[in-house]
Amino acid sequence: MNRQSLAGLRHRLRPGTVPLRTGLAGGEGGGAPLPYPSGWFCLALSREVPAGAVVNRRFMGRDVVLYRTRGGVLRVVDAHCPHLGAHLGAGGVVDGEHLVCPFHRFAFDVGGSCVKVPGGDPPKATLGQFTVRERGRIIYVWNGHDAAPPDWEPSELPDDGFSPAASWSTLLTSHPQEVMESFVDYRHQPIVHNVSLREVAPPADEGPLLRISFSAAIRLSVGLATIRVEQGLVLSGLGLASGDVTLHQVGMSLGVVLTATPVGPWQTRLRVFAMTETASRADSTRLRKAASTSWSAVAGQALVRTIAHQMGQDARIWNRKRYEPEPRLAPEESAIGQYRGWVRQFYRS
Ligand code: FES
Ligand SMILES: [Fe+2]
């Protein structure tokens, strides 16, 4: 039995839970495949799933459905109904606090239990659920070890005092580990991006977090300013990178969130968000609030455009490269070696 069918068997044995996805995600360019990692992965912006909405996404080679009840409860569930397998994202609707299947109108509550069927008693049936979090108006789901609850939280992400001022997304022929590795691959920066970058300190391993310290000067594409990224980035597993960008010239700081979500074998949805403080935290006077909000939006858009341009440069490499399990690293590339050791924790089952 291969690993894919083993994962499928585990799923059938544990109704109502979503098992660790470990299917081998083979690289297009050949070389060794990488499994799907554990961790937190972005599926959508919060505003893409308003109250009453049912939204489809691909995640780790399967369809999942996001929905929000009329009362505002967000859930991410298996796309297929446990009754006779209808796709809940193809005609399923939110009715109050329930998700209702389009085929025979079985209704599921926010705990995943079937609680109502037309003209009879509900069967004992449970819809598989993913653990979900909303941080900074972005939706994340957990892929964990054999349906256990998350053993860490995406604590470094901008919280609910922040929201995306600008965002960008693309689909890559790659794997989250390959995408995140680029942040410790300092050598490619001047060559691929024409960016001068200096490692400030070796990456700091803090369990599921990896703090990366570098200093870089990046010119925003609108010519607004040259920004210096001094704090670097924090990787929270292989699905998330976040940090602050300070625009010294205009005395402004923006949050940046980069997410890499495996949607299928060697296919990754990359998203970039520029995060700004929401109105409740902004300046008290209306005039200052408006000024600060529009400055943030302009700067956020410029920043996202700049990062998107860089990611486009990376994508030309990522889309055709293969994964090298035993890279031949130069002595000054110890950050990559350290990263390769740190990532192992996300494949334990
Ligand atoms: S398949 Fe969903 S209610 Fe029958
Ligand atoms: Fe890069």
Index terms:
19% helix; 36% strand; globular; eight-stranded antiparallel beta sheet; 349 residues; 21 strands; four-stranded antiparallel beta sheet; binds FE2/S2 (inorganic) cluster; binds fe (ii) ion; alpha+beta
Task: Describe the protein's architecture and organization.
This protein is of the alpha+beta class and 349 residues long. The chain has helices spanning 3-13, 176-181, 188-193, 286-318, 334-342, and strands at residues 24-25, 34-35, 39-45, 54-59, 62-68, 74-78, 93-95, 98-100, 107-108, 114-116, 129-130, 132-135, 138-143, 162-172, 196-206, 209-219, 226-229, 233-236, 240-247, 252-264, 267-277. It is built from five helices and 21 strands. The strands form five sheets. Strands 14, 15, 16, 17, 18, 19, 20 and 21 form an eight-stranded antiparallel sheet that branches. Fe (ii) ion is lined by residues 182, 188, 192-193, 310, 314. FE2/S2 (inorganic) cluster binds at residues 81, 83-86, 101, 103-104, 106.
